[in-house]
Design brief:
Helices cover 45% and strands 7% of the residues. The chain is built from 21 helices and 8 strands. The strands form 2 sheets. A 6-stranded parallel β-sheet has the order 3-2-6-7-1-8. Strands 4-5 form a two-stranded antiparallel ribbon. Strand 4 and strand 5 form a beta hairpin. Helix 17 packs across helix 18. The longest helix has 20 residues.
Length: 510
């Protein structure tokens, strides 16, 4: 995105460093990102690199950048490279360690692990440690259960590589233990010892060069940190962007934050963190003593006025919002990890750059308290406990306030039909609301995609009830006609083919 406004130039340097912006409204974080990219543009042929959590967030940012300048956008959205965090971080490993030490794709990536496990599992099941898996794979003539198990195990080990690399390291050292957050080892139960045994079998199967780091993500990460500590000079490794924008990511593991902190030595890293509460809220946890040890790193947010300096376990829920305590654990832990890298001196250094564009590094805004939803958002922002909430807000009349509604539906199809009707009513009530302003979250997009197509795609474009839509974050199997045709052909021995399905099949050029 290199569109410029009068007075904006591309010859201004981009100082490296980690800049973290907190805010309780995604729209405010979006506006800051657009303004920052517009105020400090890259060279005309240089790509912006952005890390996002989903394709839906990427599309929303593109639309915001493409808005005309008078509406806060840049007028064009081009030269943008959006990545998921894991994809970009592997590229960063290769840039610092070199392609000869880091393969282009890891043999421990989830898609590769699935087929490696498919091949390995039958050779291991006769060992006593794998008795639980042997019971599951009984009566598996068509190997369907083996494939399902391989998929689940590949996903499990993929998550372990990101979040529990310490477990995998211990298992690789023939220690069948789990390490808790304090680093204490706990012996695995006998019915779970197949997990470290299977990980060691995978390590043996890869058979890497002993002189090179193992191509697992955890081993490559350790080598990356060691190489970064030895790096001489301020020059940026080839292959790394001058600027990296991290937007809309609600949680990152420690590994990823460590990589971003290292990259900030050479790159300008702008992190826009959606933080629902402007006060320090790391205490509202069950294991408060453990997380309080992390406070020695310093915290970005201060304690709420009138809150005790030290909270006993009995006081935790007297000084916290119950919804934030119940549902905010993942985000709270992420912000706690972020505090380890968000240095106050770096914040003071970068604050003047944000003041120059009319923004702050803390974008907490109290919403107008005219609806139940906004009252709830304000309670979470200000960390109000329940007794303060009840004293502050009057009772809500359900007939007058529809900002929070629950619909009970008997099937996904009916859920989508209700959604369509509610959106039509919202567009009718508010002429300024457009389809591009709406994003709908579902727990499993693959399960809901056919129902969305059936309901939202039923009406022609010229019908006034038609709502333009797109379904993001679908896998290739759901969007590639060739894969769909192949799946249909593989089902032929167990299924009948209707005339419409046959015509659909013949429409595929392959």
């Amino acid at each position: 995105m290199n569109a410029q406004r009068p007075g904006e130039t591309t010859d201004q340097p981009l100082p490296p460093g980690l800049m973290v912006v907190h805010g309780n409204h995604a729209e405010a974080l979006r506006d800051l990102t657009v303004t920052w990219l517009r105020r400090y543009p890259l060279a005309p042929l240089e790509n912006e690199t952005l890390l996002v959590q989903s394709n839906g967030i990427a599309q929303w940012l593109k639309l915001s950048l493409a808005e005309p300048p008078e509406r806060g956008g840049a007028g064009i959205a081009a030269a943008l490279q959006f990545h998921l965090p894991s994809q970009f971080l592997w590229q960063a490993y290769r840039a610092v360690l070199g392609p000869e030490r880091v393969p282009e794709t890891s043999p421990f990536d989830k898609p590769r692990l699935v087929w490696r496990l498919m091949r390995l599992l039958p050779t291991l099941l006769d060992q006593a440690a794998y008795a639980p898996l042997q019971r599951f794979l009984a009566d598996d003539a068509d190997r369907r259960k083996r494939f399902q198990l391989a998929e689940r195990l590949a996903d499990l080990f993929d998550q372990y590589q990101v979040y529990r690399a310490d477990w995998l390291h211990a298992w690789g050292q023939n220690q069948d233990v789990l390490l808790d957050a304090r680093g204490d080892a706990v012996d695995l139960d006998s019915d779970q010892r197949w997990q470290p045994a299977l990980w060691r079998a995978l390590l043996r199967d890869v058979q890497t060069d002993p002189s090179a780091p193992r191509p697992g993500r955890a081993a490559v990460h350790e080598a990356f940190l060691a190489q970064a500590r030895q790096w001489q000079g301020p020059e940026r490794p080839a292959g790394l962007p001058r600027r990296l924008v991290v937007f809309g990511i609600s949680s990152l593991p420690r590994q990823s934050l460590e990589v971003l902190a290292v990259l900030a030595r050479w790159c300008q890293v702008l992190m826009c963190v959606h933080n629902p509460c402007e006060h320090h809220w790391a205490d509202i946890v069950s294991d408060h003593e453990l997380l309080r040890a992390a406070e020695r790193h310093g915290t970005r947010q201060a304690r709420r006025p009138n809150a005790p300096a030290v909270l006993t376990p009995e006081q935790l829920h007297q000084h916290a919002h119950p919804l934030l305590a119940a549902w905010g654990k993942q985000g709270r832990d992420f912000i706690g990890l972020l505090n380890e890298h968000d240095r106050p001196e770096a914040l003071a250094h970068h604050r003047r750059h944000f003041q120059a564009i009319g923004h702050s590094t803390d974008l907490f805004v109290a919403p107008p308290a005219d609806t139940l939803l906004r009252q709830l958002q304000d309670d979470i922002r200000d960390l109000r406990p329940l007794h303060e909430t009840r004293a502050r807000w009057p009772a809500v009349d359900p007939a007058q306030d529809a900002s929070v509604r629950f619909h009970l539906a008997h099937s996904p199809q009916r859920e989508v039909e209700v959604l369509h009707d509610q959106l039509l009513a919202a567009f009718q009530a508010d002429p300024t609301l457009t389809p591009r302003d709406v994003i709908v979250m579902v727990p499993d997009v693959q399960a809901y995609a056919p129902h969305i197509q059936a309901v939202f795609g039923l009406l022609p474009a010229h019908d006034p009830r038609h709502i333009p839509f797109s379904v993001a974050d679908q896998g290739a199997a759901a969007t590639d006609p060739l894969l769909h045709a192949l799946r249909l052909l593989l089902r032929l021995p167990q299924a009948r083919l209707s005339a419409s399905e046959l015509m659909d099949l013949l429409d595929v050029p392959a």
